[in-house]
Fold each of these.
Amino acid sequence: MAVKEAKVVFDHIFNELELVVVGQRQLLEQMLVAILCDANALLESVPGLAKTLSIKTLSQVMDLKFARVQATPDLMPSDITGTYVLDEHHGKREFTFQPGPIFANIVLVDEINRATPKTQSALLEAMQEKQVTVLNKTYPMEKPFFVLATQNPIEQEGTFPLPEAQQDRFLLKIRVDYPTVKDELEIVERFTEKGQLKVPKAIIKKDTLLKLQETAMLIPISNDLKKMIVNAVTQTRKMPELIENGASPRASIGLVQAAKARALIQGRNYVSKEDVIEMAYPVLRHRILLSFEAQRKSMSPDDIIAKIVK
Amino acid sequence: MALANTAVDALLVASGAYLATVVAGLPPWIALAVALGYFPQRLRQERAGMSYQAVEAKTVRLRERLSTAVDNLSRENFVAKELRSDVTKDMRGIQTGDFLDTRRVMVKSSIMIVLLLCSIVYSSFSLSIADALAPIMAKARGAHTFKGLYDTSGNVSFEQGDEDIFGESSMAKLSGKSISLELAPMATAVDITQLNPEQAKRFTSTEIPQVEASADGAYRSSIPADQEETVRKYFDLIEQV
C-alpha cells in the first residue's frame, strides 16, 4: 500500500476513534505504532483514563478479535493460554483444547502486576513466541497479535512488579495523563447524555493491517538517524551517575521500528528526526533503571531521556 | 553556481592583490596572475563542496529526504522508490538562486569596492611605502644611503671612485680633480675658497639686480667651458633625487 494511501487510512481510523475516545491522541497513536511494529505495549496509568475503551474501540475499528483479561493473584497460566478439557461428543469422550483469551488479535491484560510471576511468564512467552505450548502441543497465534498490558502506578501493595528483563519485551511503555479541562467537559457531555455515544464502524480489515505492517517496516531511514539512535541508546549505558542499568540493543531495534511506524502514520515516506525524538520516550523509559542519585533528585526516566536526545 | 561563487572570490582576490601591487610598487599584471592561479583551485573546492548534504542544507523542502534517499539507494522496495521519485521531482524545482547566499555576495562585493577605492586613493597620492622603507631596509642590510661618506663601521670617510654620493655611477669624477665652484645665491656672493675663521659678519643688503638670465647664462657664466656639461648633469641628478 502506498504511503499516501496509508495516510488516508490512518486519518479515517483516527476520526473514527475520536468519535468514542476524547483526547488521548498520543495514546491512540502509540498503540497504533506498537500494532504496526507487530509488537506489544505496556500502559501505565491511573484508573479511569479510557484504557479499555481505547483498545476496545481500536479493535472494533480494525475489525479484530478482542479479549480482556483481568489479572489477579489467583490467575493461573492456563486461564490465559487455555487448557485441555474433557469433552463428550457423539458419545465419545476426549480431551479437546479450549483456547484461552490469549487467542485473540488484541488482548488487554489489566493490571499485569497483580498476576503471579508464573502467570506473567506464560503471557510473556506467548507475546514473545507468538505461540502457546500446552501439553507438548504448540498452538500458533493468529496474526495480527497485540497485547496491551496495563499497570497502575499508585497501588503497589500485593503486586508482583514486572522485572526489568520482562519489561524489555514490551516495545513501548505508554504513559497516559489526565485529559484537559476542555476534553473532560466533552467526556462528561458524551457519557452522561443519552444518544451522544457513537458506535465506531470498521475501517480496515485484517489483510489491510498486515499490509500496513509490511509497509511500515519498509520506510527508509537515513544513516545519520540510525547513528543518532544507537548513540542515544549507548549513552544510556554511559551515565552511571544517573542510570544504573542502560538499555540493550533491543531498544535500538525497537526505536528504529517505532520511528518507521510513526513516519507512516504521519504520512511520510521517510523517517524524520522528529519521529525518533517522539518515540524515544516510550521506547526507552522502561528500559533504564535509575540510580539512587537520580531518584534522590526526583528525576524521572523522561527527564534523563530528554537530556540524551536533546 | 560553483562557477559564479568562484568568479566572485577570484575578483575579490584580484582586488586585494592589485592593492598589494600598488602599495609595493609592483606591476599590476601580478594581481591578474594571482587571481588566475587562485581561480582553478577555488573552483575545484567549490565543486567538491556541492555534495548532497550542501544541497539539503540549502533547500528546506529536501531536508532529511535527500539524505534518506541517498542512504537507501540500494533498496528496491516500493516505498524507497516512491521517496526517490518524490525527491527527484523536488530537485527539478530547485533553482540556482536557491544556493545564492546574497548576504555573502553583498559582503564580498563591498570588500572588493573598498579595496579598489584604497588602490585608487593610494595611487592618486603617489605614496610609496617601498621608498619610505628603503632607508630602514638599507640599514638592516648594513648598507648606507650615502655611499662613500660612511663606511660600514660608521666612521666617516670618503670613498674615492667614480660614483656619486648616493652610490650611483656618475658623470662627475671626484678623484684627482678639483672643481672650482662658485655658487651665486641671489642676494649675496659667497666664495667658499675664502673661508675665514668665524667672525661677525655684517651683511649689507643690495638691490636685487635685474637678471636677464638664460639657461646657458645661469650654468655657464663662471664655470669652465669643458666642465659645464658635467655640472649641468650633476644638478639634474640632484634635482631627480
Amino acid sequence: MATSLKIKNEKKLIVKSEWCKGCGICAAFCPKNVLSIENEIVKIVDIDACIKCGQCEMRCPDYAIYLGGKDDE
Amino acid sequence: MSSRLINEYLREDKLPHIWCPGCSHGITMRAIVKAIDNLNIEKNNICIVSGIGCSSRAPGYMDFNTLHTTHGRALAFATGIKMANPKLKVIVITGDGDCAAIGGNHLIHAARRNIDITTIVFNNNIYGMTGGQYSPTTPQGERGTTAPFGNIDKNFNLCNLVKAAGATYTGRSTAYHVNMITKLVEEGIKNKGFSFIETLSICPTYYGRKNKKGNVVDMMNYLKNNSINVKAAEKLSDEQLKDKIIVGELYKTQEPEYTEEYKKIIESFQKER
C-alpha cells in the first residue's frame, strides 16, 4: 500500500494542449476545481488543490490531460 | 508524449482524432483499451472490426489487428475472421445506425449463433457522420435532420433485442460511467459466446443541437442523473423507470459456442476416415 501511494504522489498532471479541443468535460468533473477552460484550451489554475484522482484523464475524450511520471514530460 | 495506455495501445501518429469537441467516443475507446490492458491480452491476438460511421473510425486509431469494413457488415466480416481463426479475440466496434439499421440482420444472426465475438455499440442516438439523420435508437419524439418535427418511430432497446435473439452476455453503460464500460468489456471478452455491450455516447454536434440538450457538460450530466443501476432498478415499478437508463450487467448465461460446435463437426468426420 505504501509503495502504491508513493507512486501516486510522484505522478504529475500533464496537459498536452495541442490535442485539447476545449470541450470542458475535465474542468466540469474535476472534484477540486483544478482546471479551467481559457480560449478553448484547458489551463491548470490551481495545481496545489490537485489530489491526483485521475478523473480528468479518464474523462478526456482527446487524451490531452493525464497523470504521468517525471519522464513523461 | 502521452500517457502509457495511449502510447502502448493507440496509433499516436493518427492522433488527435477527428471526432468533434465533446464527442464521447474517445472516452469509450480509451475505456475499451483499458479493459484489454487489464486482461493482459497479447496485442497480436486481438482483432478489432468496425463498419462505417463516427464510431467505426475507432479501429483506425487502435494499434491492434484492425479491419474497417463496409456499412453494417462489421459483424459479417468478424464472423468470417472468427471462423477462420477461432483463437483470435474478435471485438466489433459499431454504431447504432451501423449495427441496428443497416446491419440489423447481421446483429440478430450473430447473436442467434452465439459466436464468440464481443460487440461494443457506441450509441449516440443519431447518424452523426452523415449529418444528423434519425436512427433506430433515436428516442420517440426527438428530432433529427430527417425528423424535423419529431421522430414517430419507436426506438429499439438493443440489449433486449440481442438477448431475445440469443446473445449470452449483455450490458449497458454510458459515457459518464467510464469504469463500468471497462468492467463490462472485460466480462464480455471473457464470456465464451456472443457478448453485447451498449455504451450510450453523447453527440453534442447533431443530437444535442437538434434537440436543445445544452452543452457537452449538460449532456454528460443528463447521463449521470438519469442512469440507474440494474440492481436498484429491480425494486422500482415501470412507471418509476420511465425515461431512466438502466446500466450494468443485464444478462449472463452459458450456451454452446458456434466455432466450437463447428469444430466438433469437423472432428467427427476426421474420426471416420
Amino acid sequence: MATRSLNDPRRQVKVGTERVYDVANTEFPGNYPGEDHSWNLKKFRKDLKVEIQRLSRRSVEFDLVGVDASIANAFRRILIAEVPTIAIEHVYVWNNTSVIHDEVLAQRLGLVPLDVDPSQMEYHNGVATDRNTLVFRLQVACERRKGAAREETDPEKLYKNSNVLAKHLTWVPQGEQESFFADHPPKPTNDNILLAKLRPGQEIEIELHAIKGQGNEHAKWSPVGTASYRLLPNIQIHRPIPPPLAEKFQKCFSPGVISVDPTTKEVKVADPRRETMSREVLRHPEFEGMVSLSRIRDFFLFKIETESAYPPERLFTEAVTVFRDKVKRLKVAAQALAVEAAQAREGEADADADAAMETD
Amino acid sequence: MADPSSVPQSVEDKWLLLPAFLRVKGLVKQHIDSFNYFVDTDLKNILKANNKVTSDVDPKFWLKYTDIRVGRPDRTDAETMNRAITPHECRLRDTTYSAPILVTVSYTRGKYVVKKQNVQIGRMPIMLRSNKCVLTGMNYDQLARAIECPLDPGGYFIVKGTEKVILVQEQLSKNRIIVERDPTKGIVQASVTSSTHGGLKSKSYVVTKKGHIYLRHNSIHEDVPIVIALKALGLQSDKEILLATAGNTEAFKSIFSPNLEEAAKLGVFTRQQALDYIGARVKINRRVIGPRRPPWEDALEALATVVLAHVPVEGLDFRPKAVFVATMTRRVLMAVQDEKLVDDRDYVGNKRLELAGQLLALLFEDLFKRFNTELKSSIDKVLKKPSRTSEFDAGQTLQFMGDHITAGFVRAISTGNWSLKRFKMERAGVTHVLSRLSFIAALGMMTRISSQFEKTRKVSGPRALQPSQWGMLCPSDTPEGEACGLVKNLALMTHITTDVEEEPIMRLAFMLGLEDVCLATGAEMYDHNNFMVHVNGMIIGLTRTPLHFVAKLRKLRRAGRISEFVSVYINHHHRAVYIACDGGRICRPLIIVERGQSLVTAEHVVLLRAGKMTFDAFLKLGLVEYLDVNEENDSRIALYERDIVFSGPGRTTHLEIEPFTILGAVAGLIPYPHHNQSPRNTYQCAMGKQAIGAIAYNQLNRIDTLLYLLVYPQKPMVKTRTIELVGYESLPAGQNATVAVMSYSGYDIEDALILNKSSLDRGYGRCQVMRKNVTMIRKYPNGTYDRLADAPQEENGGVQKRYDIIQPDGIAGVGERVDPGDIYVNKQTPTNANDNTAGMDGSVVASYRNTPMSYKSPVAGYIDKVLLTETENDNTLVKVLIRQTRRPELGDKFSSRHGQKGVCGLIVNQEDMPFNDQGVCPDSIMNPHGFPSRMTVGKMIELISGKAGVLTGKLRYGTAFGGSKVEDMSKLLMEHGFSYSGKDMLTSGITGESLEAFVFFGPIYYQKLKHMVMDKMHARARGPRATLTRQPTEGRSRDGGLRLGEMERDCLIGYGATQLLLERLMISSDKFEVCACETCGLMGYNGWCPYCKTSQKVAKLTIPYAAKLLFQELMAMNVMPRMVLEDV
C-alpha cells in the first residue's frame, strides 16, 4: 500500500463543478518551509509501485504509483511516438486496375501492422539491405466463381478474391532473411484488414518494402492503438447521505463505485477505480457539500492497447529502454557540455592572458 | 360539427408524405415538368401558330406542318450501327445530348398534295431525366450500365460536353394589376404588363397626375385622360363612366369628377371624338402598302390590339376592355383614398417563375419562324425559275435546310445569350455551367432562382426576406454580397406550375352561376353584395356568393375535376375572387383540415409506410392539395395539430405537412439550424457548396475540368431528415472529427484550427484533385494534320527525363507519376499548317514542330485516365486526367456545418495532443472564442448529440424544429459515464498534468473546403515582365509580382522612406535608362539629341519605362512633354 493516505490534500487534484483545482504538484524543494522534497532514491524506491491489473493479448492495464506526471507522461509519449516498429514504406505498383487509387492503396498498406520484432532490424539509411528492408508482394486478381447461383448478390460467393485482405500479403525473403526469420516469418498481425475491393477482371500487383521507423514520423510506426493514463478517482463523503437519496446518489456514479447497504441505506465508496468522473453528483443541489471529488496526482491507471508485433506487457519495458537510452544520451551530452564549458573558460582565460600580454 | 372536446390526434410521421412527394416529383421537378410541358404541349402550340408556308411567286403553292414531335436522343455520327446514346458519352466526347425534332408536313407538288412524315428540321438538346431522356424510367442497374449516378437529379442539358443549367428566372406576374404609390411625387399608378401567347408584351398604366387620372401606353404619345379613354372604349355617357369607375361611393365620385370636367373642356363628348383624340396621338407604325387610314381607325386598332393586349377584343366588342380599364381606375381611386390599398411588388404572389421550358419555347418559336422564312425564300428561289426539268418538290428543300435550329439551340444554351429580337428579348447569363464541386453544389444550383432585378441598385425591398416566402423559398439559402436576396432557392416541397388551359375553367365558372361582367353596369359591379371574378387577370364575371363559389370550385379541384394547380382565393379589399391557372406560380402541398380534423389520419400513414399509397393517391382522395402563395394567404394553416382552431372566423383550413420543409435542400444539411443565429445558416449554405466530398456515383468515370474528391468521406453522426431525402448520406462531403473546444498554443487564434498529425497520417481530410487536360489532333485545310510522336531519342539511345513517361503512342501511360515539367502528350504540329498554297493532298509536309503538353503544377501528380475519342466534327480529342492526392497542410480551409470556417493553423503530433480518460485524442482543436459572437448553439448541440450517438452506436437527428432533444442526449452521456454537459476532463499531452478547465469534447462534422494553400501560395523574386510596360506581370498564373499598391505607397511617403519608394516603384520594377536633352527636354538616344542635333547637353537618367512610354504616347498624340532637368 502506498505510504501516504489518498485523502492527503496534497496528493489530490480537486475536481470542482466548473474547473479542476490543484493540477500541479506542489511538493518540490523549497516550496514548503521545513520540508525536504529533494529527490531521494530511497524514498522514490519506497513510493514507486507498478502493479498489473489486467492483461490480455492486445492490451494491458497497470497502476503506476509514486512518480511525477512528467515521468508517466514521458512513457506515454515514448510509447506513442518513439518505440520503433516495422511498417510498409515503399510501394512499387506494377499493376492496379482496382477502383482504389495507387496513393490511397499505398497509404492503407502503410497502416497495416506487421508482426516483425523491430529489434531484429536496423533503421533504413537510404540503401536497402536484407538487414533493414522486408519485401512483401501483393498479387491478387479477382475472378468469377463458377457455379454461383444466378440470383446470388453476395460478392463473396459470386467472386474469388473480391476483398483484398492483409493475409494476401506474402513475404519475399531476401538474402539471409529466410534463415534469420525462419522461426517467425514476417506477416501482418491481423489477417483480416480490408485493403481493397475487387471485381472480376481487376487485379493488383504490388511490391512492398517495409522498414523500421518511429511513430513521430508517421502514425503507421506507432506501436500502440492508444497508450494513456488516468488518475485514480477519489470520492470523499463528508456527511452521511440521507437514506431516501442513497439510490440517486449511487446512480450519479459509474456502476459499482458506490455501494448502498440494502437495509440501512448507508452509502459507501466501494470501488473508486471504476469511476469515470462524470461529475453528475455535483450537478444536483441536494448533494451539495456532502461529497467532494478528486483524483490522486501520482496514481496513474495506465492502459496500453496494441496491435503491433510487441506483446502489450513488453511495450512498457520497451518504452523504459528508449527512455533510458535518451537519459544516457542526455547524460553524455551534459557531460560534454560541462567539459566544453570548462574548456571555454580555460580558453577565455588564456585569451585574456594573451590580450594582456599584447597590450603590454 | 365535430365535437370540439375531441383533441385532434397527432398523426405520427406525417412527414412521410415528404419522401412520397419527392418520389413523385423529385428535387428538380420544376425543371423537368417545365421541359416536358414544352416538348409535349407547347411545341405543338407553337407549330399551330406558325404552321403554314406559302410562296409569293406561286399562289397555288402551300406547305403545312401538321404535327411535330421530338424523338429519342441518338448519336449523330454518320456511320454508326448502334444509335443509342447515353448522356455520359456526350459528356466524355464533348458532344451535345440532343434528339431530332421531327415534323409531319403536307404540301403541294404540282396538282397533288403530298404528305411526308418524320422530316427532321433540327435537333433539340434534351434535358436529363425528362421524359425524352433515355435515363428516365431506368432502375439502379440500368443506370449503372449507362454510367450514370442514380442520385443525380437531372434537369440540366449537356451541350458540347458541358453540363448547362437554365436557371429559374423570377419575374413580376403578367396580366395582373399592380397598384403603386410614389410618395415623393404624389403619384398613384396601376400598371399591367400584358402578355399574350404570341409573345407580345406591352405595359399599360392608369396614373394620377395633378389630381387627374390618365391612361398611359407606349404606343400613345401622351397621356390620355381616362374619361376620353373610356369613351373611346365605348362607355358613352358620363353617368355610365362614373358608375363604372367610382360606383356609388361618394368619396370616389368626388375624386373622380374633375376627370369628367377635363374631358368636357377638351371637347370630347362622343366615342367618335374620343377616338379622334386618341388617333391623333397614336404612334403610327408606317405601313408601306394600303391607303392612309383616318386617325380614328388607328386609335381603334391600337386600343384593340396593343393597349391591354391580354384582354381579348372579339368583333370590336370593347366591353371587356372597358371594364378592365374601369377596374384599374377604381383601384387607383381606392389607393388615392386609402394609401394602404396598394400592392407589393415583392410579394411572392405577384411573382412568376420562368423556367427552362418557357425560355426554350421562345427560342424555338424564334428559330422556327426564321426557319420558315428561309424555307420560303429558298422555295421562292426555285419557283422563280421559269422552267424546271422536274416537278418541284418542297420536301427536298425542307430536307436540305441546314442546321439553323440545332445551331441556334446549341449557341443559346452554351453561351447563355437569349437574344430574340422578335420578342424584344436580350438576356445574357441565362445558363450556367452546372457546378460539380460537390453533390450539394449541383443540387443547390438546380433549385436556384435568379432575379431580373439589377444587382447594382441599392434598394432593400426586393432583397428583403418576404413573409410570403414562407414554405416556398428557403429563408437561409442566399449568397452574400451583391446578389444577396436577389438569388433565392426553392424550399424542399415547392412546386412551380405549368400552364393549364383556362377556357374550361371559365366555362365551369359560368356553370357555377357566374354572371357575365359584360352584362353588368357599374352600379352592379361595385354593389356591396357582388364580387368580381378574375381568371388569370381577365375580368369575366360577377358573383353574389363568393364564399360559396370559391368553396364549390375548391371542392371540384379536390375531386380532381379541374387541375390541382388551379388556385382560387378571395381578396376582400378588392371585393374580388381571383382564379389563376397560369404557369410559373409557386405552390406547395398542404394537408386539408375539415371540421378541425386533419384529413390525413394515422391509417393513411400506415398505408403510406407500407407503400400502398402514393402521394398522388393523397391528392386524388382530396387529403392533400397544392396551394399557391395567393391562396395560401387566404387560408388558415396550422403548424402542428395542437394549433388547429375548430370554429369561428379563424377556423383552420390546412395543416403543414412538416415545418422543416420551409428550408431548402442546402440549408437542410445544417443540424439544429433553429438554434443558430440566422446569418450563420446563410454562411453554411454558401460553404456547403464548396465542401469536398463525393460528387456522384460515376465520379471516377467522369473527366471534369476540375474534380475534388475526399478519400474517406463519412456520413454525418448528426443527420437531418433532409440529409436522408436528398441522398447526402450516400454522397457525403465531410468527416466526423473529434473536436476539443479549447485553446492550444496560440496558433488557433482568429478561427484557426489545430490538427492532429496522426489523424492526417490515418487519412483525415485527405483529398484528391483531378484536373482535365485536353488537346485536339487537328486536321488542317491544306490536308496536313497533327500527330502524336514517341519520345525523342538522345544520341546515347536514352530518353530525356521529361519524356520518360511517354509511351510509344505519344501519350503518358496511365498510372505514371508526372513530375513538374514532364511531358505527357507529345503532340507535333506541321510547320505549314496554315499554309494553303501547298497541295491539298497533305503530301507536302515540310516538317513538324513540337507542341507538347507539359505538366505545370509544382507538385507531382499521377495520370489517372487517358481518353481518345472523336468529336462531332471528326477531330481526334485527347483528354488526360491528372490526379493529385493531398493531405491537409497548414492553411487549408475547414468548416463545420454552422458557418464556422477556419484554416489549419498548426499540425500537432499526437503525443502533444490533450487526451481524455479513455485515451482519446482530438482530431482537431477549435478555439472557444469562435462561439460567443457567432452564437452557433446548433454546433454545440451537434457535438452533444454526436457524442451521444457515438456512445450508443446510433446516428442522431438534428432536423430543423425537431431532432434529438438536448436533454435526452445529455442523459445518454451521463448514463455512459460522461459529464452531462459534454465537457470532459482532459490531460495535457505536453506536461502530463490534468488541464485546469473541463473541455467541451466530442464529434463535429467537418467539411474540407476547396480552398487549399497549394493552389494559392505564391511568391516571386525575379520573373516575367509584361511586354508593353516592362513591369512585372500580374497574378499567380503568370508568376506575377506582388503589387505595392497605392495605400502601401502612401505609407512609405508618409514615413519618408524615399529610397525604399524609389526602389519598389522603379528599380525593382521597370527602371529604364534614357538620354534626355537638357536644352529641349526631349528624349534622345546614345547621348545624342535628334531635336537639337547635338550631344553636348544630353544627360543620362533613369526613369520608369512606363513614364517613357507615356511620353512617347503623348508625342504620338501631338502633345510634347518636356523634361526640365536640374542638378541636385
